[in-house]
Design brief:
The chain is an all-alpha fold and about 70 residues long. The protein is about 50% helix and about 0% strand.
Length: about 70
């Protein structure tokens, strides 16, 4: 696992997850992709709404350390 972590840190972009040699090359990216579309991840949206509700409760002590858990029906 440590070797995988080392590899990913050296070769994978933390923003998009693609290989850095590709995604940091503006010409290569423009050659492969025309543009980008905006989509909504509804799991992420559900988590954002939960965090917003939690933040409004006034009990947030470490806003950058909080996380969410999806609750099954």
């Amino acid at each position: 696992m440590m070797a995988l972590d080392t590899y990913e840190r050296a070769h994978k972009c933390p923003v998009c997850g693609m290989d850095i040699s590709f995604c940091h090359d503006q010409v290569a990216v423009a050659t492969v992709f025309r543009d980008a579309a905006v989509d909504t991840c509804y799991v992420g949206r559900m988590r954002e709404l939960a965090m917003d509700e939690f933040a409004q409760s006034g009990t947030v002590e470490a806003p950058n350390s909080q996380t969410t858990r999806l609750n099954p029906r």
